[in-house]
Structure formats: C-alpha cells, structure tokens
Amino acid sequence: MPQYAVVTGASTGIGQACTDYLVKKGFRVFAGVRKDADAERLKAEIGEGVIPLIMDVTDAATLQAAAKTVSETLAGQTLAGLVCNAGIAVAGPLLHINVDEVETQLDVNVLGVIRTVQAFGPLLGADHKLAGPPGRIVMMSSVAGKMGAPFMGPYSASKHALEGLTKSLRKELALYGIECVIIGPGAVATPIWDKAEEIDVEQYKDTDYVKPMQNVLGWMRKRGPEGLPPEHIAKRVHHAITADKPKLRYAEVPDRMENWTIPRLLPERLVDKLTVKRIGLRPEDRD
After folding, report:
1. Number of domains into which the chain is organized
2. Catalytic residue among 21, 155, 204, 209
3. Partner residues linked to 188 by β-bridges
4. Catalytic residue list contains 21
5. Cys staple from 66: which of 53, 148, 254, 274, with CB 3.0 to 4.6 Å?
C-alpha cells in the first residue's frame, strides 16, 4: 500500500511544490484546495498520484468532510503525513490596521491549523483502531516566526503563535508517537510576492507610514522573486516526513548568514536600530 499525505493550501506555491514532489517520491497526496478549477489543474499537471480535496481551513465542516474521505481511502491504515501549509499574509501598520484584517489573518494561519489538526490528527495514529506507524505533522512557519518585520505584524504574530502551538502540540502528541516538525522558510519565489502589488498603501496616506511602507514593499518585490525555489522547501518537507529522526525545526533561508545567522547573534536592540534606519522609521525620517 502506498504512503498517503495531506497537504493544505496546495493550489499554488509551496503547497503545490510539496504535492508534486511527494507524488514523485511515491506518495499519494490529498491536496487541499478551495476551488474546483484548482483541483482539475493539479490532476492535469501532477497526475493520478494527487487526490484533490475541496477544503477551507476556516470551515471545520469542509475539513471534517475531507478527513472522512481520506479515512475511507486509508481503509484502516494510518496517514503518513499532514502538511499544514495553508496561509495568508496581511500587511499594515499595527497602529492603524483594521482589526478585522488581523482577525482574518489569525483565523487562517492559527485557528485554521488547529481545525486541520483536529480533523486529521486521529488518522495520524491518535485513533487506536488504525494500523500502521504513527504519521507526522509538518508545520509551515516562516522566518517571521522568530523575527518580527515592520508592517508584517499580523503575519509575524500568526507565525509566532504557530511556533508556540507546535511546541505544545508536539509534547501532547508524544502520547501517540506523532512527531511535529516546523519548517521556517525565508523568502521563497512563489506567487505570494505578486500580492505585494495589491497592498493599498494609500489607505494610510494620512499617517506617517506611507513612505516606510513603500520602502518595505519595494524590498519585498525585489527580494521575493530571488528567494529559494519552492521545490527546495518541498524536499525538506519530504525529509521531515520520512527521515528516521528529523530535526524539530528547519530554517530554510536564502543568504542564510545575512538573513538568519547574524541577526540572531546580534543584540536585538541593534538589529532593530539597523532595520528602522534602513526603512526610514526613525523620528528624524518623519516628513
């Protein structure tokens, strides 16, 4: 019997790359998407190894229905892997951002993960009636899960929460032998960077943040497409599911020394000082 995995947020980017790579490695993958068009496209592009499932991490009923389909396919066997990848990124200055947008961010990136784990966790081995080795959960965090970036506060908050959630969950699921692995990418060359163009900076035109936000978005538009290929993250996900003893967390960051190692070694106050100077967030930078 082939190994099976579930990947949420599989329609594009990292999720699609994970689905494709796992299929190439012999897995059958239940790919979570929200649209029928994406389901048909994935089947056409990846082949019969992918089994698209219509699900929305903000809707527990769709997740439970998807889990029922997976359970029927597994026919009494355990699920090998659950990749919690679905997520969005909300941007804006925390002093002015609409709180409804922050609620949406947390609903998808944090509560969505909890709903997903509750739906599929039993299939990983928490259900004693299933046969086979316990599966693993791979949590898609971010470099933002360890560092906070200006104007990305809602996203950073969601990924900080995911890191803490995973650490707690890992200990709780030890009862069933289910391991949890965090992957924290930096910039990855996916369509998410195209959405930087959609951020309406002008809604903050009556604040002091327009120019600094433009500086940050310019950096995002430049560095995003230069990030790691999504296939790089997909390979790490496969390793996290299949390795005998994977690490608890993997930081997959381009230009690792500059963007990860050095900032984590320097005093945090100094890193803050360098960041606000580069972006234009010092008092003397105000118009």
Report:
1. 1
2. 155
3. 228
4. no
5. 53
